[in-house]
Each structure stands twice: as C-alpha cells, then as structure tokens.
Design brief:
This protein has 843 residues and is α+β, with helices and mostly antiparallel strands. It has 30 helices and 15 strands. The strands form three sheets. An eight-stranded antiparallel sheet has the order 8-9-11-10-14-15-13-12. The protein has a four-stranded mixed sheet with strand order 3-2-1-4, with helices on both faces. Helix 17 packs antiparallel against helix 18. The longest helix has 37 residues. The radius of gyration is 33 Å and the shape is elongated.
C-alpha cells in the first residue's frame, strides 16, 4: 500500500520538497483549520479563555468538521467504499492542542491507483499546513491482521470512531476489532500486562514523582485506556467500585483531572509534552484554578493513586474472569475458606462471609484489612464497596478487638501498605482516622522526601514493623510511626499540633490513659534524638541530661523514640539514614540509659481470694467468663502443678480456636492458677466443660497437644473449623507471612538470687505460648510466674524462671531452642525501583 501506519509527510516550518506534491493541492486547503486552532490557543484574556474540557471539545469539532467537509469534497461519501476513521485522541474525542492526528483511510478493496489519489487529497493538505499526522491506509481485513499481531495497534483500534464516508465499512472494522479482541483476550492478556509493567518501569509512579509523566506513568492516562480495553473484552467494568465521595472522586473524575492538566501543559508549553516540569507547574495550577504547584501536585497525586488502585482491581478482576479452555472448564469453583470472624478467602481475595452483617459489625473493616495484610491476599473491591455503604462508625473508645486488629494490620510491615491504600481510596481509612484527611496526598516541602506525607507515614509504620522486637511496647511503636507527622499541613509546628492529635487518636482507639501520654510524647519529641545527636555536643553532660529530663526519665519512651527515628529516616528518602546518623543516635541513647533507673519488670500481682480458694480445693477446674468486650473472654485454669502443665493449658486453648491475647501464670498451695485473656477466631468459644475435658485428656497423655498444633499448622495457617455461614475450610492453605522483626530473647535480673527473668519478643503464631512453654519444660526450667502479652501481631512474654545450672552456655542453649519455635524473620525488603522524587514538582 502507498501509506503505512507511522509514516509521516513534511512537518517542518518551511515547506519540504520531499515527495511529489500534486499541482491541484495547495497549503491553503487546511488554513482555515490551522487559523481556528491558533485563535483558540491565543485566547487567554479574561472570559474569552476556553477552559480545558471546552478546548478539547472545540478542537474535536474543528477537526471533525474539516475532515467531513474534505471527505465530501473528494467523494468519500456513504456507499463510496471509502471511510475516514479516527483513533487516538480524536477517536476518543479528547484531542489536545498539540496532539497528533491519528487517521485511517479505510477502503473496500478499491483500485490501488484510486486509493493513492484519495489518500493524497487527504494527507497533503494536512502536511502542508504543518499538522502532525499519523496515518495509514487499510482494508478491514488488513487492519484486523495488523491488530492481531501488534498490541499497540489493537489498543488504538479499540478506540476507533467513524468520521466520514461509508459508515457500514467503519462499523465492520470497529465491530471486527472488538470481536477479535474479546476472542483473543486469553492469549493476549499476559502481553497487555507486560506492556503496562514495562511502561511503569520506564516512566515511574505519577503519585510520587517530582516531574510525572501524565500519559505513560503508573496511575496515568494510558492506564485508564488499558482498563477501557479490558472492559471491551468484558473482563471488568474498570470502575473498582469507587464511589463519587471517595478520595479522588472516582475513576472518571481522576482521569478528567489528569487530562485537564495535560491539556494545559500542551497549551502553556506550546508543545506535545507529557511530562509535567517544575517551571510549568504554577502556571498550570493557576490556569486550572487549583492553586500553586503544591496544590497541583496534591491533585495529581490524588488522581493518580485513584487510577492506580482501579488498575490493581481491574487487572485482578480480569485475570479471574479470563475465559477457560479445555480441561480448565471442568475445574471446580474456588472454595471459601475462613480467615477471621465474618471474613473468608475466595478466588484469591479477601471477601465477607455469607452471613456477615456489616451494618451490625463496626469492627469488620479492620478485620478484613488485618486478614488481607496477614495473608497477603487483596481485599475484593465489592467487599470494600459493601463496607463503605453499610459499615457503621466504631464507637469510642474502640473495643479491644478493633484495636487488636489495627495492631495486627500495622505489625505486618510492608504487607500493610496495599490494604491501607485500598481502604484510603475507598474512603474507609478516613472513617477510622478522620485526621488523615489533612495530610492525604499532601506534598512535602523538603525535596529529600520521596513520598507524600500520608504515604510517608505508612512507609514509616512499615519500617517500624521490622523493629518491634527491639522495644518493650511494639504496639506503641507502630502506632507512633503511623501518626508522627499527622500535624503537618495545619499551619503550625507539626510536632506540637501532632501531639494534640495523638491524644485524640489514642483516646478514640481505646488506649489506656498512660499509653495515650506515651503516644503523645512520641509524636511531640519524634525529632528530639536526631536533632540533638546531629547538632549538639554529646560530650557535654548537659546535653544528655536535657534529653533525659525532657523524656521524664522514661526508658520505654527513649527506646521507642530511638526506633522511630530510624524508621522515620528510612521512610524519608535514600541516604537519610546512614552509619553516621545511626552511630550518633546510638551513642546518645546509650548515654541517656546510663542516667536512667533501669527499674524492674512488673510481676503478675496477687491472686484474688476466690482464686486462692479454688487452688486450695485442688483438682482441675476451668472457668470461662465474658468481659466488657463481646469478642473477648477470660479463661481461668487451675490444676495440680506438674511438668508440662502450662504448655498443655495453652495448647488446649489454641486447639479450640482461641487466640491468646494475654496470660498471667501463677501458683498457690501446689496448684497452678493460670488466667488467659482469649478471643475466638470464629464464632463463640467452647464451653468451660469441654475445655476442662480436653485439658484432662491432655494431662493424662491421651492428647499430644504440640503434635496436633504442628499438624494443624501444616494444613493451614488457621484452625480447621467450620467457618461462618457454613463455608468449607478445606482447600489450599492461606499463604503464611513471616514475622516482620527478628525474634529476640532478653535476660534480666530476677527478684532473688535464684531466679532470672526471660523476656521473649517475637511475632505471633498459633500455639506459640504452648510451644515456648514446652521448650522451657523440656530443659527442666521451673517457671515461677509468667506474664504474656499479645500486642497485635507481636508478643512480649516475660517468664520468671529458675534455670538448672545457670550460666552462659545454659542460656545460649535455651535461647536457641526457643528461637527455633517462634516465627522466623521476614526476608529483606526488596528495594523499590527509582521512580523519582516526591509528587511535588520542585525541580
């Protein structure tokens, strides 16, 4: 054929002599179109200025009018066997000031000489007028052949629109392309995804890039075009169940905002640019009445993150919806497996159980998010939409199980990022933390920051998740990391404002008053250690004394601030945390500790008269009572002291599907008096009589508790029980996540010369207390008392013990055995590819 897609005529400012120019064609043939375009773009005075959406519409109308007029002039009419079809921006009716014209001259197997003459009469006037043109001449069958082998061509033809001529011919092409796309989507889906990923690697993430590529970056315009193509294939609707009141305003509003920015970028620069540069940001923000470059960056980030979320949902939905072939058609539907109360896994996503009632279960939002982070499975868009529509607000203060689920979510490290992003894009995160709205998509003012303020907080909390075993309060560490910059964007010292907001958040989520104070001080002084360590003389005694006085002599607060300083620095940007800063802060902390009183670990406290009476009565008793929280129960187990008793008690509770939240282990009159605070994984807890019966069987040796726990864990991360709504629990195991922080065993002096205190800090695991207790019992360690705390996904378990032949070797052997039964540390986090600086275009 005389013309192929991608060929171009002369487009230089001076007339080109390349190629023959028919004598009957003159540059004046398209001057009206060029003149009208220039007049539109020159209108910048007051009310005469056309806004971005109107400019695109007028440009489309101008080009449609010129093309239809020209077509009629040269005989391209209904029934002529010729048609002009637009693709690209003109095909989508989104023509930008300096976009190329993407045109196809379609013909019905016409004579090549006639086709060449008709093509010349269309292309040369446009070339001579210096209008950039991307053109091709095809029959319907040729266009289908090209689309079958060229992904870019296929995607372009899916946007084809009839302009002039034989409309039946255009319909034949458009219908054929769409049918071919739907038929071949199974084999082409992988290539489409690979193409998108290559584009994201080249162009980066729009939401967190200083000079984003609005068209090709992740979260950009091309991503929405990809979703539209998947919608044509009937794999997804592309909308991700986003409501109009969601951040970003829904997919189409986010797309229109980016398109408006790109339109103004073309108009202001006078070039077909896709990358927003720093020098143009303020002018574009003013033209769109958004504000300055920081306001523009926030709008772009908001829109890009909405599109990115929609893409994640759309690709996942499309993958699950791909048509099956051959034996795969006979494959059974995925089984619904329980993950938590009212939460199941289905088709590789976290969804609601059939009998879940979001309108009557305010804590369901956090249980769904925690299950997603814990298993690595994404939350279904339909589930998030249902929660957004029906889930009520959590009462204040939050119930303990809601706080526990939040801590589980935050304790999963990098695995929490995707669930929080999904909650935020669907408006659910703002319900949990209303203060979040002020920092959502807020661009940083300092160029060393990689992320927007809200994403920086999430990244800091993710880093803190790998440091939870360094501190005695891992729950406060991840909470403080999440909110330490919550006071930014409010026109005052963000540390002071943030401390007040921390009080609000802490009281709302149900922390104890003393913990609220620590959380508030973490936020208030989160910059104290870095500032003092890098700017003050550490050899001056007044420097260290000032830090100790500021922190009120609190070792807990000091260790929390030390870990937070590292997590915050690592989440700021490359090179912010290094050996120099680490050594200075470490030295400051060591000097502060030497001035502080070490204190002692608290023991469990005295027994009540009722428990003393039961212990003196002897025998085995189990009592289960409700607490103030409907999902939390207290279980008191009393039995004559014997070897292996604690591991048997804890193991029986785990086998009955009860998650240990805390435990107090004591003894009196030859009987162990152990109290456990538990929460059922599903439904209601077992009755006291059943727990007592199983405990007696375990004590008599009829049940090997540890072996059963091992078998259960091999089959699934979760207990094998009938899930809510009768879901079958059989099926592929839910992928288990490693603990985010490396486990640690610490040793402290006991309360007499014969005892020591062993403290275990590790990630949680089904039956962990039973396993650790069994290790201690196997090493003939006598447990005087124990205090066990489960803080989200982390445990801090303290045992006052007497060791046989205490010494370094004994402790090392015991420590090695304990670490063998706790969750291993997570593999190192893969560094993210360089996607540029934060989303504010500051150069």
């Amino acid at each position: 054929m005389p013309f192929v897609r991608g060929g171009r005529g002369p487009v230089s400012e001076e007339p080109s002599g390349a190629g023959p120019q028919p004598s009957h064609l003159t540059p004046a043939a398209a001057t009206d179109l060029v003149t009208a375009r220039k007049q539109l773009l020159r209108r910048t005075d007051g009310n005469k200025r056309v806004d971005a959406p109107a400019l695109r519409r007028v440009l489309v109308d101008l080009h449609d009018f010129w093309l239809t007029t020209k077509a009629a002039e040269i005989g391209i009419k209904p029934g002529s066997g010729f048609a002009i079809v637009a693709v690209g921006g003109l095909g989508r009716q989104e023509l930008l000031p300096h976009s190329d014209l993407d045109l196809i001259l379609l013909h019905d197997e016409m004579d090549p000489a006639v086709v060449a003459e008709i093509a010349d009469q269309i292309w040369y006037p446009l070339w001579d007028a210096h209008i950039k043109l991307d053109h091709s001449v095809r029959t319907v069958s040729q266009a289908l052949q090209v689309a079958a082998t060229d992904m870019t061509a296929a995607l372009g033809l899916l946007e084809a629109r009839h302009i002039a001529g034989d409309e039946d011919l255009s319909k034949l092409l458009i219908g054929g392309i769409r049918q071919q796309w739907r038929t071949d989507i199974r084999s082409r889906f992988g290539g489409l995804v690979d193409q998108a990923r290559d584009r994201w690697r080249r162009s980066g993430d729009i939401a967190h890039r200083a000079e984003p590529d609005l068209k090709y970056g992740r979260g950009g315009l091309r991503d929405v075009h990809m979703l539209d193509a998947l919608a044509v294939a009937q794999l997804t609707d592309g909308m991700a169940a986003l409501r109009p009141d969601s951040p970003g305003g829904g997919l189409r509003q986010a797309y229109t905002r980016l398109l408006d920015v790109r339109t103004e970028l073309h108009r202001i620069t006078g070039r077909p640019r896709e990358q927003l540069r720093a020098q143009d940001a303020d002018e574009i923000g003013a033209a769109l009445r958004i504000g300055d470059r920081f306001d523009l960056a926030r709008t772009i980030s908001d829109s890009a993150r909405t599109i990115s979320y929609a893409v994640d949902v759309g690709l996942r939905t499309s993958s699950n919806s791909l048509p099956r072939k051959g034996l795969s058609k006979l494959r059974r539907s995925p089984i619904r497996r329980p993950l938590d109360e009212g939460v199941v896994e289905h088709f590789g996503e976290v969804v609601l159980a059939r009998n879940a009632l979001p309108s009557k279960d305010p804590g369901l939002i956090l249980r769904v998010a925690a299950a997603s982070a814990r298993t690595g499975l994404p939350m279904a868009a339909s589930t998030l939409a249902r929660l957004a529509d029906y889930a009520p607000e959590l009462r204040e203060p939050w119930p303990i199980d809601a706080l526990s689920d939040l801590l589980v979510l935050l304790g999963t490290g990098e695995h929490m990022i995707a669930p929080i992003e999904a909650l935020d894009r669907t408006g659910l995160w703002g319900r949990l933390i209303p203060e979040w709205g002020a920092i959502r998509d807020l661009p940083p003012r300092d160029p060393i920051h990689t992320w927007t303020v809200d994403r920086h907080l999430v990244e800091t909390a993710a880093n803190a998740g790998s440091m939870t075993t360094r501190v005695s309060r891992p729950d406060l560490l991840v909470l403080g990391a999440l909110i330490h910059d919550l006071g930014k964007g409010r026109g005052a010292d963000h540390s002071v404002v943030g401390a007040e907001l921390a009080n609000q958040v802490g009281n709302r989520i149900g922390l104890w008053p003393e913990d609220v104070q620590i959380l508030s001080k973490m936020v208030r002084y989160h910059l104290l250690l870095p500032d003092v360590a890098t700017r003050r003389d550490l050899d001056d005694p007044a420097t260290v004394q000032g830090v100790v006085d500021t922190l009120g002599g609190s070792r807990v607060l000091l260790e929390l601030l030390s870990a937070l300083a590292e997590a915050d620095s690592k989440a700021t940007g490359p090179g912010v945390w290094g050996d120099w800063k680490s050594s200075l802060i470490g030295e400051l902390v060591r000097r502060c500790l030497r001035l502080m009183d070490g204190g002692r670990l608290a023991d469990p406290g005295p027994l009540t008269p009722e428990l003393i009476a039961l212990a003196e009565a002897g025998g085995v008793s189990v009592d289960l009572v409700t607490t103030d929280n409907p999902h939390t129960f207290a279980v008191t187990m009393i039995a004559p002291e014997q070897s292996g008793l604690l591991s048997q008690m804890a193991g029986v509770l785990s086998l009955r599907g009860l998650r240990l939240l805390s435990a107090s282990v004591q003894s009196h009159a030859g009987s162990a008096v152990n109290t456990f605070l538990v929460s059922p994984l599903f439904g209601e807890p077992s009755e006291s009589g059943l727990l007592r019966q199983q405990l007696i069987q375990a004590l008599e040796g009829n049940i090997d508790v540890i072996a059963r726990l091992d078998a259960r864990e091999r089959e699934s991360q979760l207990p094998l029980a009938t899930g809510p709504g009768g879901e079958n629990t059989q099926g592929p195991a839910v992928p288990a996540l490693f603990a985010q922080a490396p486990p640690r065993v610490l040793w402290f002096d006991g309360y007499d010369d014969d005892s020591v205190i062993l403290e275990l800090r590790a990630g949680d695991r089904i039956g962990l207390l039973a396993r650790v207790s069994a290790v201690l019992e196997q090493h003939r360690v006598f447990i005087t008392w124990a205090k066990v705390s489960t803080l989200g996904g982390s445990v801090v378990d303290s045992f006052c013990v007497r060791l046989p032949g205490d010494g370094p070797q004994t402790r090392d052997q015991l420590e090695e055995a304990i670490l063998a039964v706790v969750p291993p540390p997570a593999p190192p986090r893969e560094p993210e590819e360089d996607t540029g600086k934060s989303g504010v275009p500051i150069g």
